[in-house]
Amino acid sequence: MLTLYTAVGILRFQDSIKEHKTPTVINNRQEYGLTEEEFFLWSSLAFQIRQIHELQSAFSERLKKHHRSENIPIEPYLNRLLLRGLVVKGDGLTGVDALYRLLGELYISPLQDSFSVRLFTCIYLCMKKKRK
Q1: Per-domain residue ranges for the chain?
Q2: pTM of this prediction?
């Protein structure tokens, strides 16, 4: 069985009390604060699709880079991110099956732009098309 993982959501850094920025992931209009380990794990999956052994090595590499113990188990942090919907996984007998199950339930949420941005973008694209 092959399992693939990827991160979902929008990363933002919010100011906290001690002049320290807290990583926050926004998914489905919900904000989720991340611990340092969760942030290392989530960012290892951002714009990536990885298997568990690839994720473990990327996680260990980030811990090492930030002078943390490389022997921190990944499972509790991965399970917490999965439960909150910030990481998704797909299982399958082949890579194609796992990828289909991983991406099959995801969707892209469009950003909300003002009417003027949409209007000028439309005009720009129309003018660009006429030049060709």
Answers
A1: 2-131
A2: 0.75
